[in-house]
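We were asked to recover a plausible sequence for a given structure. The inputs and outputs are reproduced exactly as logged, with field labels preserved.

PROBLEM: sequence recovery
POSITIONS: 123
GIVEN STRUCTURE:
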């Protein structure tokens, strides 16, 4: 399993942008599929975006499609989530996740989780 540390969360107004980062240690990032999950207060965790080990395949939740971009820099063991045109519904804790193989973009598919970073979208 990788150790994952997220950063980049914060308070932003609707329509604004944020970029989340996840730095991995304990193994080569190129060997893992990755993802960003989020959880709003009172809601279940959901997969916002997932990406294959090489970056050749990506998946986005319908509600974020066209607004979020997941990417990775394997040379620097870093995963990113670029978020634009943010909405209040995007508020929640965002988690970086990793797995040796990519199944569905669901919580049970990813054994390794970071501690999360808070994103709040409010005016």
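RECOVERED SEQUENCE:
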């Amino acid at each position: 399993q990788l150790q994952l540390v997220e950063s980049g969360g914060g308070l932003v107004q609707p329509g604004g942008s944020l970029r989340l980062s996840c730095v991995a240690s304990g193994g080569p990032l190129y060997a893992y599929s990755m993802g960003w999950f989020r959880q709003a207060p009172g809601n279940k965790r959901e997969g916002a975006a997932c990406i294959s080990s090489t970056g050749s395949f990506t998946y986005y939740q319908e509600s974020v499609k066209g607004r979020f971009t997941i990417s990775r820099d394997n040379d620097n063991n870093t995963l990113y989530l670029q978020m634009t045109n943010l909405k209040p519904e995007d508020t929640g804790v965002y988690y970086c996740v990793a797995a040796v193989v990519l199944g569905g973009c669901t919580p049970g598919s990813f054994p390794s989780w970071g501690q999360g970073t808070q994103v709040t979208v409010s005016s």
